[in-house]
Input
Amino acid sequence: MIKYCYLCVFSALGVMFSQSTYAQHDETIHLDEVGVVASKVNTLTQPSIEEARETINKTAGGVTVVDMQQVREGRVSNFTDTLGLASGVLAQSRFGAEETRLSIRGSGLQRTFHGRGIKLLQDGIPVNQADGGFDFQAIEPMATRYIEVYRGANALRYGASNLGGAINFISSSGYDADKLNVRAEIGSFDYRRLGLSTGGVVGDFDYFISGSTFDQDGFRDNAVQDAERINANFGYKINQDIETRFYIGYAKSDSALPGNLTKSQLRDDPSQSILSTTVGQQRRDIDLIRVANKTNIRLGDHSNLQLSAYFSHKDLFHPIFQVLDQDTNDYGFEARFSQEGELFGHKNEIIVGINPSYGVGYDDRFVNNLGVRGARTNKLENRSKNLEAYAENRFYVLPEVSLVTGLQYTHSERNLKDKFFANAAQDESFDATYVQTNPKIGVLYDYKSNVQFYANVSRSYEPPSFGELTGGVRPNIVDAQDGTTFEIGSRGNSESIDWDFSAYYAKLNNELLQTAVFAAGNNPAAATQTTNADKTIHAGVELGLTARLPWHLEWRQSLLINQFKFDDDNTFGNRDLPGLQKSLLRGELMYRNHGFYVGPTVEFSPQRYAVDFAETLYADNYTIFGVKAGQKVNENFSWFLDARNLTDRKYVASTSVILDATRPGTNQSLFLPGDGRSLYVGAEFKY
Output
């Protein structure tokens, strides 16, 4: 099967390079010059999707723009829906929920909840907490116009240093928003989602306001979810060169957790929940408020200064192996200066920035007494401090060849104060500091106006979040993860095909790996324990492809091929890292004509993969099929039908990881099943 996936890559590359005729298409990949003077969008703080494509295609590495108009042709609920066909992104919902395994190039490899390893942004402003973790519930896809994906060190323009890169969700502004947009979705497992938004321009003032509700019983028992969100931004043009914009976000998400299953339980009934009155109920309830401001100051025709600041507050009630009751405040500021000019008679562009952030969290822990607080077990106060400084320069050696160099500096502090212990031996307090400078160099070759080639070498660095340091039974001080990544690739579009291809090879030190740690009596409500691996290798291929075929057919796909393994480890040798498939293909073949579309969808995971480091227990390979149909009836009304897993295949969407499944007494409740057969329909009205 792995040979089949490589054949897909090389066949696709052969087709793409045989094309040379340029045409403009409404696809994800655009390399043509885009004029924005007469654009409907007239704002300094919220770039249009055309401007975003023009900017992102100056990157000497793997990048993607996801047009949410394409995503809205089907269900728009979780990160799998929005990023499932984005090149280089692995997004697997945990049980149809917003909680997702989100990974780029193996970032946060074994994290199946509360994301890590990617810098998540909304409108260019960090969503991550100061310690690096982030919550999926903070993002509302219905309020998003498009998504920028910067894979790996290609996210340096946002100050990111981690292995995965950055994902930036861009909202509409009053300049490109509908005056009124109403979207409703309903479907299997009592799924209901409603979104309303409005936007407009009044003189020098513009606004965009979005509200949404979401609830479902879920495919599995004890998987009820409901959420309400409000997102808004308000912009004001002080003059033609200065614009300021305020952002407000509120999210309330309540989610029951059904827990992991053993392999035999999944085969018997994947909809069951293992949680019972003898184990305790599990939930993840979040209240999140976020306020931010971004001000752009144009300093002449070719220079720009952007200042941004944000504050977020999160309440988390999280009964798992114990009850976690957390209250967190995060603050951040960023100054970013960009300039286009000349250096030694050649075109030159530079971006420099600084981004300090600070967070304080109050972490109370109790015995899980059937989902409510029992006796107190701990009381902790954690503080995170970070300073990121970065610079990226693009020097045009020739009009069609640019040399990209960059440097990023990270200084991070993690401080924990234990406020609940009987004697000094039980005091879990600690201070940890992580510092590193990360260089990058790359080259971008504009072979034609619609074809680019690139290569780069970069360093990555990721300090641990408190999820790694205190997420287990007791604090565990680990080192930061760092590494070197080599990347080559190409992107472009022709009359019949668009492509986005990258191949990368990363050598990592001290990779942050998690394993399940089970409570007394093999309680299946497991904690996780993070350790540092010695040396590991992450290598892979990322291929996004859109092919326009005869008879009004269009094939879209995202193919991932992963080879993640230990590198001469003392214990595990050169074994593969557990917990993630070696290849994954998502695709759809649509018949499109006069606004109507219909066709099959597929998700293909051709190899089994281990869920323990000893390689004794595996998640099986699978293929699931669906059908999607819909129509843009006119400029005001559209509808869709989205049927999934038509064969009702029992399969594993995500897993936990343990050291050795064959050890006596080891609990093997590691598997999170994907949803069964389901059907979703929706309609959208706008004007």
